[in-house]
Design brief:
Blueprint lengths: L2 H15 L14 E8 L7 E4 L7 E3 L6 E6 L8 E11 L4 E12 L2 E8 L3 E3 L16 H10 L4 H7 L9 H11 L1 E2 L20 E4 L1 H9 L5 H14 L4 H5 L5 E11 L7 E11 L1
Helix pairs in contact: 3-6, 5-6
Length: about 280
């Protein structure tokens, strides 16, 4: 292929998306000018994850002049990223690009950040991530999906099966975490207790503090043993399998940190458990 044709194809690949899927792209040959930008203050942004696990997508510097050679999304398939800014560029030829996100994440003290086309990410919590604070979730459905699919939430997933007709409530799970849980003392669990949380939306809340304490006392045991403890404590509290099957007018609040890694690679493991039923 003629050299000029190769150059044209390369320019189209870089300018069109800002990313090259297979190999590290060359630094941008044409000037990119920021024409629109919006920075999210505090926690006003949202969390995103790679749209496709292990797909190559390089991160760029803010001015889109240099690729960050050590940051590619394919190397972080389990990571959750915070969106700090949304940016649109104009090329030297006057063409407007699509929207780019400035994303960042910190895990075990290692920061990963840069600009990436929003076409390579999707909104929501990565279900393959380790322990995720409840505040990262936006909806009941998103949190339920995480509990059912995260490889770190197997005990929670099996616990949900004991309540086949009871939907999970993110709001009630936050209440459970704040008021009714048993957590190992750890700097990674700081801030999980907030006794001032508002419970006024619920007519009644049935907590299982003894169950949570039993799980924490036996956190080194297998999930099979812990699931047996859950069954035993539920029966002791009057919740037989037939009663559990009838709980369609209640909600379930659950927050299990079951010897889970914090972030993607923390060696430090911690445990904590909270489970409640509530009715509005």
């Amino acid at each position: 292929m003629k050299q000029w044709m190769k150059a044209v194809l390369l320019t189209v690949a870089v300018v069109g998306t800002g990313l090259v899927a297979a190999t590290q792209p060359a630094d941008a040959a044409s000037k990119y000018t920021i024409i629109k930008q919006h920075w999210y203050v505090g926690n006003k942004g949202h969390v995103v994850q790679p749209k496709t696990r292990h797909q190559s997508a390089w991160l760029w510097n803010m001015n889109h002049t240099k690729v960050k050679s050590h940051f590619n999304l394919k190397d972080y398939p389990n990571r959750i990223f915070n969106v700090r800014a949304a940016v649109q560029y104009k090329t030297a030829s006057g063409r407007k690009t699509g929207i780019y996100y400035y994303i960042s994440s910190i895990d075990s003290g290692k920061a990963v950040s840069g600009m990436v086309s929003r076409n390579y990410v999707k909104k929501g919590v990565n279900p393959y991530s380790g322990d995720v604070m409840l505040d990262a979730f936006s909806t009941d459905a998103e949190y339920t999906n995480y509990l059912k699919h995260s490889p770190y939430m197997k005990l929670a997933k099996n616990t949900l099966k004991l309540f086949p007709n009871t939907p999970v409530s993110l709001e009630l799970s936050k209440i459970a975490r704040a008021k009714y849980g048993a957590y190992e003392k750890s700097k990674y669990l700081t801030g999980r207790s907030d006794t001032e949380v508002d419970t006024s939306a619920y007519k009644s809340i049935d907590d299982f503090k003894d169950l949570a304490a039993d799980l924490l006392a036996n956190n080194a045991k297998s999930d099979t043993t812990k699931l047996s403890l859950i069954n035993k404590d539920l029966v002791k509290a009057g919740y037989t399998s037939s009663k559990l099957n009838s709980l369609s007018n209640q909600q379930l609040g659950i927050d299990f940190t079951n010897n889970t890694k914090f972030g993607q690679s923390h060696a430090r493991l911690a445990s904590g458990y909270a489970l409640v039923l509530g009715q509005k």
